[in-house]
What we know:
The structure is a homodimer.
Chain A: H1 6-26, H2 29-36, H3 40-47, H4 50-72, H5 79-96, H6 98-109, H7 113-125, H8 131-143, H9 152-168, H10 170-176, H11 185-202
Helix pairs in contact in A: 1-2, 1-4, 1-6, 4-7, 5-9, 5-11
The structure holds a DNA duplex.
Amino acid sequence: MEYNTETEKKILAAATEVFIQKGKDGARMDEIARKAGLNKALLHYYFRSKERLYSHVFSSEVRCFFHAFLDSIPISENIENFLHGFIGNYIEHLRKNPRIIRFILWEIGHGGQMFVEVVSEVFSESESKTPHSFIKKIEQAVQEKKIRPLDPLHLLLSMIGMSIFVFIAQPLVESIFSGVQVTDSAFIEKRKDEIFQLIWQGVHP
Amino acid sequence: MEYNTETEKKILAAATEVFIQKGKDGARMDEIARKAGLNKALLHYYFRSKERLYSHVFSSEVRCFFHAFLDSIPISENIENFLHGFIGNYIEHLRKNPRIIRFILWEIGHGGQMFVEVVSEVFSESESKTPHSFIKKIEQAVQEKKIRPLDPLHLLLSMIGMSIFVFIAQPLVESIFSGVQVTDSAFIEKRKDEIFQLIWQGVHP
DNA sequence: GTCTATACATCGATAGAC
DNA sequence: GTCTATCGATGTATAGAC
Lengths: 205, 205
């Protein structure tokens, strides 16, 4: 597509940091330029406007995150392994990429159109791993009586919600339950276990 | 504390609307003044600064929401009724107050210190209904073998995560699963049922 | 208390030299 | 491609009349 010059990379790295920290409105082109060791004029030379720079940064961050997550899901015929792998990998990815959470929350807090567009794009690029394919897998398990009758969409929503919540509410959780460190390995492993146990017993036929 | 004049109410109403729609940075004092049928100078006369006006609006919105939610939780000795009531009331409150979600997401996306402060305050004002009291209730049910051994904190986090997720991800969910309307009564009732069934079977001894 | 007018700062974007 | 300097627009906050 386009050749990534050294300068462009510097701008994107600085912009990513500032946009995540301050949001689109709170971010200042001056600060991005300073952090990149350059000047404002160059940002506009490379990206025309603040809006375009933001779109570029947000899209690539979200795309990268979702692609890596989808790639990490094990393709298993066994429904127990699939559910276990889905939860474990999702939480692991969130733990490793805490900044993407803030980014997405910021965007959703401002309408979230761009987020929806990017995610839809990512899913349309994948054939075997889409929300609909997950639902089909669960549906099949129901038909084969591997799990009890339930609505696959709601199970999927529940799994995602349980997994992502502690990362969204991290500051609140750590403040109210003093001693809890959401990103600690011990807590993360415990969280994976507790979620899977609840789910697996909850879907038992 | 302070007498709420008609003008002050008008300012707060307009500010609430604009802050929720645009966020703290995106909001303009001009727009708030116009929407209130007043002028910028008056906003500063009543609230000194944009920052203070925002704090006032955010705090009162969040306090109101959480107080109403806590009051709605049934005090039941029966653990099944308690879990069922908690989930049902939480979802119901989220459905009725969609704007608070955006507000909180916006704030968390910007660090969330203020959110943490306000919520901690609300809980400290309540005696019988705090996260710790919920955990104790679950702990007791475990000891009485009403439910299987599990970590009460994680169960609480799971219940909240499952309940709130569809509201957080509403635009994404409705876009990916065309036909789904998160705030539709039918979907909401189905969601309550599916969550409770999963939880209740999942915690069975 | 409420208004108009304006000070003062800041930001995004651009012009123009090198 | 990269810089300095600056424009034009907009925003918060205030001064001062009524």
